[in-house]
Amino acid sequence: MQLEDIKKLFLRHKENALSHRYITNKHIEPLLEKLPVNFRVETIGKSVLSNPIYSLKIGNGDKRILMWSQMHGNESTTTKALFDLFNTFLSSDSELNYILEACTLFIIPILNPDGALAYTRINANEVDLNRDAQDLTQPESNVLRNVFESFKPHFCYNLHGQRTIFSAGTTSNSATVSFLAPAQDKECTITPNRKIAMEVIDVMNQALQTIIPNQVGVYDDAFNLNCVGDTFQSENVPTILFEAGHFANDYARDITRELIYTSYITSLDYISKNDVIGDQYKSYLDIPENDKCFLDIIIRNARVNGEFVDIGIQFQERLNSNKVEFVPKIEKIEKLKDFFGHKEIDAKGFEVFNASGNPLKLGYENVCVILNNEKILLLSK
Fold this sequence. Notes:
The chain is α/β, with parallel strands linked by helices. It has helices spanning about 5-15, 25-35, 75-90, 95-100, 115-120, 140-150, 190-210, 230-235, 255-275, and strands at about 40-45, 50-60, 65-70, 105-110, 155-160, 165-170, 175-180, 215-220, 240-245, 290, 295-305, 305-320, 325-335, 340-345, 350-355, 370, 375.
């Protein structure tokens, strides 16, 4: 499909009931209830706190694709993009029936409903579900494992979100979208099914490069069998990690949401139309590996306690009255020549104080600082 056509589809079918970063079962349940019968919605299990875990099954094709989102409860961008995708499949004008004729999609929109409700990475037992693939100690882990065994997917989409710290390589380009074809052994062998995953990722990367050039990265493929992606890959099912990251000033992740949607459509289009055998994988190896080169704000050329330094500020995500707020926190007071800020302020050698007029310290949290006798807001209104 042409990217212009995908953008038009997104603008027509974006699910406006889902916005910003806090997405829970309460937000998606009314949307699930409205879906027609060809979206086969089920409750496939319960969380630690007995919240339902929902699934949708769409399509009747021979190519089976398993997708799950919010394994980490505070990573919701990929979930929003899923409901945009559902709306697109519902529409008679989307002309995407060929995907559902070629593929069957089994989708878990929120695997960790307790973590989603609390806006935490972990589940209610304080376990990272993405490190529980072998021990299977948690009910949510067993739900996913049971689906994997019964559905027998040909592809797995492991859908996540990433922090604002990541760069595409050691560059000033934010890793707005990242991927990984996880390893399936300690040697990180490029196996036949990893090649298949790499080929699909390369197709998505080629599309994204025309929209966000040099802002796509891949993660280090160090092997960890406790991770779900590594486990499924080791069982010879091509598995793709999706990571929704940061675009300039897009802390609500609206722009990234569209990019993830574009990645869904691009990959599903490719899988539905091709017998993917992995022979087109090599360009994947040219995608830069993510590094951690970013802070949310850097105040350059500042004085703190008489010393000339840079000040690195990272936003902390806090849930307050069912809304995610961003709290600036000072993470570094040092020369930051190897770091970039999503926003940079030149202090021009002036002393920088906290909001009370006292010297800055590591760990200080506030929405503003004082620079040259002027209050500087660290958050945009």
